[in-house]
What we know:
Helix content: 10-25%
CATH topology: Extracellular Endonuclease, Chain A
Number of helices: 6
Number of strands: 13
Number of domains: 1
Strand content: 15-25%
Shape: globular
Structural class: alpha+beta
Oligomer: single chain
Mean pLDDT: 83
Strand order of the largest sheet: 1-2-3-4-5-8-11-12-13
Radius of gyration: 18 Å
Largest sheet: 9 strands, antiparallel
CATH class: Alpha Beta
Amino acid sequence: MKKLVLxxxxxxxxCSSCAHKRAxxxxxxxxxxxxxxxxxxxxxxxxxxxxxxSQPSAKESSSSYELPRLTSQxxxxxxxxxxxxxxxxxxxxxxxxxxxxxxxxHTDGDIGRSNDYREDIDVPTPRANVEDYKGSTWSRxxxxxxxxxxWDYKAMSETFLLTNIxxxxxSLNSGLWNRIEQDCRRWxxxxxxxxxxxxxxxxxxxxxxxxxxxxxxxxxxFKVILRLNPQPAAIGFIIRxxxxxxxxxxFVNNIDQVERITGIDFFPALPDExxxxxxxxxxxxxxx
Length: 288
């Protein structure tokens, strides 16, 4: 068998067609060879020559388009939560990426912030805990934001697991990062839904760490957003972990640029020609 994937499964796995409602939030997948998990995605061959992607059907589910290509140059631990999917790096004690589908009806809700920051027992020790952040100058920066998960209490609470958190400059956390989170909710309302991936950028250098568990402080962060309507488009951002007061438009990148910086292959479930087209071009004017 060409692809070897060892799956350690905690909890009940629902079918992929119901992934956006997955109760199997504790599922953990270990990818132990540098291979794709393309069987988790399906491509419609009939769309390969089209310039437009139709809205995914309910059967296709919301889990297809946001997931990056899964590889394991090191050991990649995939955590499936109710509101997001996360690739965890046990060496850095922070995520490699966090991906989710944000629909218009999930942009608001009655659930308030739970603020129950806690260590994630689904990952091996040593791992980040709340004590690591105490006494540091870094805030606890959400990757998948609490504001995208007001639709369900469990989804909200799971955003406060420390595997979904990175040490983030306070001005960035409350400033530009928060602005882009609000933009994503506005875009989800405007276009019906968006597919989002974000995470840390680690430069090829020695990294600052915090706490007894040596949680790595990223030098920057990325966020990429895909929409399918009224026509497919994508936009990316790369932001230094100290630049919370500058204007958002200064940090716009196309997806190809973000891929080169992060080494992550985004939106591989798109038909190839559409993927190539949307990843080569980004213009913030198309999103206003």
